[in-house]
Write a structure and sequence with these properties.
alpha+beta, 407 residues, six-stranded mixed beta barrel, 12 strands, 13 helices
Length: 407
Amino acid sequence: MPKKLVIALFSAFKNIRSNFLHTFLSILGIVIGVAALVAILSLIDGLEQYANEQISKTTSLEAVMVDPNVYERLDGIRMKKAEYASLDYGSFKELYSGIENQGEGYVMSRFSKRVGLNDTIQLVGSYVTGVSEVTGENFKISEGRGLELNDLMNYSRVVVLSQDLAKSLTKPDSAVSVIGKHLVFDSLRLEIVGVLDSSVPIEGAFVPITLLGSQTLKANPPRMLIKANNVEEVPDIEKKLKAGLEEKYGDRSEDFRIVTNGARVEQANRGFLMFRVIMGLIVGISVLVGGIGVMNVLLISVTERTKEIGIRKAIGAKKKDIVIQFLAESITISGFGSLLGLIVGILGTLVIVPIVKAITQAPFQAAFTLNTLMIISIVALVVGVVFGTYPALRASKLDPVEAIRRE
């Protein structure tokens, strides 16, 4: 069997070489289809890689968040629940302490307020965030200090400002330091003890969450974040948080949802997979046209080689030998077209990428993966078998006497 297959492949290469121009024109659909498929898959793979890099840079894959889930659907309308549980500093400490080897963690409640500096009547709009701490990598301090544990335990009336808010409050003299001055909103007068670095993406004023009353926390349900020491620990932390919420809140644990950034990456990958499949099916039309071209080449070959087939059958060739010969030729032709398409697709992608980078100004690169090569190999095999079967069967059913006489 292997020997017959090798002979069939050798014969197929010989026939392609003898009718190269006709074969090439007939499989042009496969060349174009495979080239488009290679370009699209490599660009999508590159786009997926770029998206995952951006997600990793802008969000922490080690982060596990407990977000408030205070909305429900009633008669198809999204409404806020009449009653719901919410976190506070005490419940955060209880949940946080129940996790072994936990990394950095905090709880925060965020809302908007009009704030002013000292006794000025000039107010600016700002976000106020009640938080359990303002230290560590997420809250880099450029001036003064952050919020400390003593501030939380002693209900200290202190506040840390973002760089933008500090500049807004001191305009037009933005060079003046705000450290030691007081931030005023509602009935609170808080001493400014620190200013965040400009690299910190979160803006506004940061106060000890213990200063916020129960009504404020109820109206602005806090969220909790724990950063694992490594990505592998995220599922374990997620599991322990879920168990801790169920133990503390019972049925009300449904008022919280646990979110990880890994889920966002998974959602993005699922979207790219859907896009990849849809575009692949659209481009598959060209491959289908190319398959019809392969069938056309083989049907012409059967007609031209009727005498040869008759002689082979007359000297003892079986039906399966004829089928193997023409299937091998079909697979060789589709493989040849796929190889040309692969080369054209790669070259075309290398031309497209600089154009995309010039337009978008993004560090985007196409990605040629093993999956793309495997898909192209499968396409070549499937097209060869599917569109070569009918001509092969037709050739195998020729009567040797009639075939020789027809010439």
